[in-house]
Structures are given as structure tokens and as C-alpha cells.
């Protein structure tokens, strides 16, 4: 591809910055669309008190795409560990994003201002300029609201959707300006890696984002998780992940799936530290191909600190190869 490929990455959580950090080193035109349904930790507290979209994932994405000094990025990422009842657990970057949102009258203007300050190379869009509430219906017919409550229930999820807060003037979740256009103009859309029900799908459940993903001519690439996740994908194969995505949008829309084939050594995982993971995702390549997916299986595994992660360098190399050899729609 002679021109700079336009790549849109959609998701949230810790997996998103890994891919963005690698893409940042490539000659790509990058847009990140970040979930705003997170209600845990520092982000959740700030969204409740200040009524701003949860800033944590946005903070990590901006650092991944930033050309500012390592010292500045370290300060931005610093999390207070004092016993102070207010500051304990808060990242400085979260507080800055919340403050700028208030000063500038919205999250969009705040991110634009902060992107210039941090020399961010690319575009960062929260999926919506409203903090959204994640809802789930389980296979037993019960329903819950809130990301933390949904995953803590440890039930099998049938479907999820997002809504605005009950007190919001906006009644229907809507994508932030620029996000939909970026999807429609992209050469490649990347979903993941990240929590299927709480990091990836909440973005796609915003109607205009979901419809744009179905309408775009871009190749849709799903980076399948290496491990299943407690409260979300216990017992899932790679095909089950894609089946869930397709079911929520009512169509087989995923073109290409990146699957790790390297085995995580037995007894390696530190389940006390990473209590959200359980077993390695199983493979069902025939199931993927029946849904029209091109399957790219490779050693994408990075073992670090008792956990199994995606090797960002390997994943990004494959993503750039896909840009050069796109799957025909």
C-alpha cells in the first residue's frame, strides 16, 4: 500500500495500548476509539463525582501515542499510593482529563487540547461524549447494570447493550463526532485485544458505531484473546468470540482473526495476581472459516510477570502485512 494506511483501533482495557504503541512506530494514520462504559477503580469514582466519561483507558491510549518525554508520561501515569481518602488510587492523568473536560466544556475539546500538549500522533476519540452504563442479560433471563456487577456475577452472558445515565439529557447513546467518519474512511479496523463483553462490544453497541462498522469497506480484524476471562468468556473458543461479535451486530462482519497458537506453559500463570483469567482459549478454525473469516495463526505470546499477553511487536507486524495484503470483501 503506497499511502499511509488508515487504521482504526476499537476497544479498551490494557490490550489496546499494546497494539497502539506498536502501530505508533509504524507509518500509519491511527485513530483510537475508546470505551466509555468503565465504572471501576479511579475512572469509576471520577465519572460518578464529576460526571465525565471514565478517563483511565483514554489516559493509557494517549500515552501509547505520545511523543512527549518519558518523564512527562511517567508523571501523567503516576498513581497516588498515599492513604489520603481522596487521592489514594487516582492517576494524575485521570484528574487532568477530568479537569480539562470541565474547563473546555466537554471531553472532545479536552482530548484535543491534551493531544497537542502531549504530542499525540493520531486521533483519540471516546466512543461517546457521555458516560455510558453497560447492561447485560444472562442466559437465565436475569439482567444487571454496571461493568463491575456484570463480571462479578459469574453468569453466562446472552447479550449486552449500553444506555446513558438516567439523569442525562441525552436519551440514546451516540458516537462522538469524528469516530464514525474515521471508521467509514479506514483501510483497517482492529477489534481488541481486550475483554469481549466489557471493552470491545460496548463500543459496537452504540448504534452509529455499529452501523459504521457494518458499512465500512475496511478490513475488520479481530485479535482474539489468549486466555478466557472469568465472568465473561469461560469455556470460549476463538470461534465463540467471533460468534458473539457477529450475533450482537446481526451479521458476519469479522473478516480476519489473529489467533495465538503458542501454548502457555502449565503452572506458569499467577492466578492470584491475574484473577480475571482462567484457561487458554481453545481453537475452532473450521468454525471461524464457516463464518467467512481468514485465520492467521501464529506465536503471538508474550510471557511476563506471571501473565500471558500479546507480543505487541509480532501482532503489529502481522497487522501491517494485512494492510499490504487485504482480504477481498
Automatic annotation (TrEMBL):
PANTHER family reported for this sequence: GLUCONEOGENESIS FACTOR-RELATED (PTHR30135:SF3), UNCHARACTERIZED PROTEIN YVCK-RELATED (PTHR30135)
MF (Gene Ontology): LPPG:FO 2-phospho-L-lactate transferase activity
General function of this protein: Required for morphogenesis under gluconeogenic growth conditions.
Compartment(s) where it occurs, according to its Swiss-Prot or TrEMBL record: Cytoplasm
CDD domains: YvcK_like (cd07187)
Primary residence: cytoplasm
Keyword Manganese listed: no
UniProt keyword list: Cytoplasm
GO cellular component, one term: cytoplasm
Protein name (database record): Putative gluconeogenesis factor
GO biological process, any: regulation of cell shape
Amino acid at each position: 500500500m503506497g499511502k499511509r494506511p488508515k487504521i482504526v483501533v476499537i476497544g479498551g482495557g490494557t490490550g489496546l495500548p499494546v497494539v497502539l504503541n506498536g502501530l505508533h512506530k509504524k507509518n500509519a494514520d491511527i485513530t483510537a476509539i475508546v470505551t466509555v462504559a468503565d465504572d471501576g477503580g479511579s475512572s469509576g469514582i471520577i465519572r460518578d463525582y464529576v460526571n465525565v466519561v471514565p478517563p483511565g483507558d483514554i489516559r493509557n491510549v494517549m500515552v501509547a501515542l505520545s511523543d512527549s518525554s518519558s518523564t512527562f508520561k511517567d508523571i501523567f501515569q503516576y498513581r497516588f499510593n498515599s492513604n489520603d481518602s481522596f487521592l489514594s488510587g487516582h492517576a494524575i492523568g485521570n484528574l487532568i482529563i477530568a479537569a480539562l473536560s470541565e474547563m473546555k466544556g466537554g471531553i472532545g475539546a479536552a482530548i484535543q487540547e491534551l493531544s497537542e500538549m502531549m504530542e499525540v500522533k493520531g486521533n483519540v476519540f471516546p466512543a461517546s461524549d457521555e458516560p455510558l452504563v453497560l447492561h447485560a442479560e444472562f442466559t437465565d433471563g436475569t439482567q444487571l447494570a454496571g461493568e463491575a456487577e456484570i463480571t462479578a456475577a459469574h453468569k453466562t452472558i446472552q447479550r449486552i447493550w449500553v444506555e446513558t445515565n438516567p439523569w442525562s439529557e441525552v436519551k440514546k447513546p451516540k458516537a462522538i463526532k469524528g469516530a464514525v467518519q474515521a471508521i467509514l474512511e479506514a483501510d483497517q479496523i482492529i477489534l481488541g485485544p481486550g475483554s469481549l463483553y466489557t471493552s470491545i462490544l460496548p463500543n459496537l453497541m452504540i448504534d452509529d458505531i455499529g452501523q459504521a462498522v457494518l458499512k465500512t469497506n475496511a478490513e475488520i480484524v479481530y485479535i482474539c484473546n489468549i486466555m478466557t476471562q472469568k465472568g465473561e468468556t469461560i469455556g470460549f473458543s476463538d470461534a465463540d468470540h467471533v460468534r458473539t461479535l457477529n450475533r450482537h451486530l446481526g451479521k458476519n462482519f469479522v473478516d480476519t482473526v489473529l489467533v495465538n497458537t503458542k501454548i502457555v506453559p502449565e503452572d506458569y500463570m499467577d492466578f492470584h495476581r491475574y484473577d480475571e483469567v482462567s484457561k487458554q482459549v481453545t481453537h475452532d478454525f473450521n468454525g471461524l472459516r464457516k463464518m467467512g473469516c481468514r485465520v492467521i495463526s501464529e506465536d503471538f505470546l508474550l510471557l511476563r510477570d506471571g501473565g500471558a499477553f500479546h507480543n505487541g511487536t509480532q501482532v503489529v507486524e502481522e497487522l501491517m502485512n494485512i494492510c499490504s495484503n487485504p482480504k477481498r470483501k
